[in-house]
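[Automated response] Your request has been received and processed.

Submitted sequence:
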Amino acid sequence: METLNKKRRVYGEHLTPIQVFKEFILPEIKDKLYDYIWIDLFAGKGNLILPILELIPKNERVEFFREHIFLSDIQEELVKQAIQNAVNYGIPKEIAKQNIVQRDTIKDYPKFLLNLELPIYHITNPPYLYIGYIVKHKETQKYLQYFKGNNEGYQDLYQLGLINDLYHGIKKMVYIIPSNFLFGFSVSNKIRDDFLKYYIIRKAIIFEKEIFEYTGTNVVICFFERKKEPKHEIFSFEGIKINKKIQKKIYTLNPKNHYRAGSDFEEFVNEYQTNKYLKIKYYLTIEEVGKNKGEFEIEVIDANAFNGKEYERIKIYVNKELYNKIESNILFVRTVDTGSLNGRAGLYKIKDVFGVNGILVTKARYRTHPIQIFIEPQLSVEEQTLLMSYFNLILEYFREKTDSEFMTTYKYSNSEYTRKYLGLSQVKKIVQTFPWLKLTEEERMYFKDLIKNKDVVALISFVKKKNEKRRFTEIE
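Generated structure:
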């Protein structure tokens, strides 16, 4: 099993269950089977194309296969299995071997397919292998050659599959790819900017549940169609999201946001940052404690020592300056949903949750641990409590509005909702919209009332108005 898992990582291989094809892709294409050549350039066992043969009368299957189906994969073993699967559908082995071949299609695109009479329809689940992983592992460094020349700047093997089809003028494709293609930031900006200049997404099926046997990677099935002429433009498509329920939603992609889906949150935190914002730093580290030893005792939890139920509590002895810093910063950020409704990502008081005054990192820093935050300029306890309430109201508002799409799915579970991870850069951006430092006393009273009454719509409107004034002033 360990060898198989290593092999999967080397090839970025996540084989698609036949049922996924039959349930979500076949209904979209079943009336067009004779109109196209059906190819999969990362075919695995052929699960995304060969089931088409079930809809072809047995006496026509061999001829249909010969004229309409072409598969390839880099792994010899998988090619042999795909050939056998074709045989199981009634295709003679010698004919199957002609149209199912071993080939590295990222390096060597099968251009002969472009010269056949019928147009190509590419249905595939390409390899997923992030360049950051490729660089760090000797067995995958051979793939670095793929990311040179015209492919420089792309971040994943699946992106090279997309761009290869773009280069070769393919007009219709169905790709099963990581959902970071739609929702990711820097990892996906370039591929979206380049690819969606040429293609629209006609439809997408977004999975927030496990569909592959050996990975928790979130995936989306995208139905791509090539535009008549390349141009950057706003376009919309219907998305079907599947988790604990099935939801339909219209997504609008805008080139000014790198065509990123679910960008409401980013637009708010980027456009309405106050010009007098709070600065925050993360983590109380053992190194900082070591440099500030003293006689003042303070109790903390060790973020690196969790026994499955609770964190270990320890006492540290520091000088007065660090003691005051720890004592006066009462908040921590929970970046990962626990799964319960009262344990969602957000800001919380350290004392209320852990019964201590600080959170110490004794070993490595992990973004998924509880993280103490340090705020400048200094805020009173009342002001920090207000910030906490503001932060959580804004966060929950956008989670509700976007179905948490600006956050990263953390782990599949049986919890009441899909567990998400909130990035530290996102935490900082929400804090930077908190307009407290620039408000008059009268405005502060109104602001506090909005938060107390949880009137989040009026609260966001107030924040926007305050920061719109800033932008107009700067323009003038």
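Summary generated for your ticket: The chain has two domains: 2-263, 279-475. Residues 381-402 form the longest helix (22 residues).
If you did not submit this request, please reply to this message.
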